[in-house]
Predict the structure.
Amino acid sequence: MMKKTVLIGLITCGIVWNGMAQTKAPIGSLGQNDPKAKEVLDNVSKKFKSLKSVIANFMLKVEGANNSVTDSKKGAVYVKGTKYKVIMGDQEIISDNKTSWTYAKDVNEVTINNVDHSSSSMTPAKIFTNFYDKDFLYRLTGESTEKGKVLQNIELTPTDKSKTFFKVLVDVDKKTQTLARMKVFEKNGNKYTYEINSFQPNGAVSDDLFTFDAKKHPGVEVVDLR
């Protein structure tokens, strides 16, 4: 089972197609952010903030160093303001912005924690906010055309060099101004690709989706770490 920190990190660093035709832009000066990349990221943030809710289906591809391990998992994410629910395989991660629940269906166990509101803590909604201004250097490397979609390609480098990853590649759908794909490169050689297969803005999402009801899971083992 994929660890919660890895799953949340992939979704938030915050996000398929073949026939890529890419044009490269010159690399900007070290330590300076590209204003063109900022404009794209700001548009994604603005678009997300205008939505009442988001429902997205995604594919997560894991590649080990030297192609030692390759695995793919389908998942879904529901976001409403600061609340979210992620479903992937036998694992669910739920948060109402006060309490978080990590439910492992295969062993019928739920772990409960208080939500960490520190600036270093990442959630699915934060990928669509301007966290990138503080945590990353970024540049627009070009555009790619894939199955009729024009994607704007952005490279992000973490300012904190102690991070386990050293680079994140983000593709933004130019027309819809939404995240299409994200690839995370770890220092140990592992690569994680998160691809959006469908994106539904303002879908019907009830608040009770963002809490864990133990009564609906008879015999569930509760590990309360609050």
In short: The first strand starts at residue 54 and ends at 63. Confidence is low (pLDDT under 50) at residues 1-30.
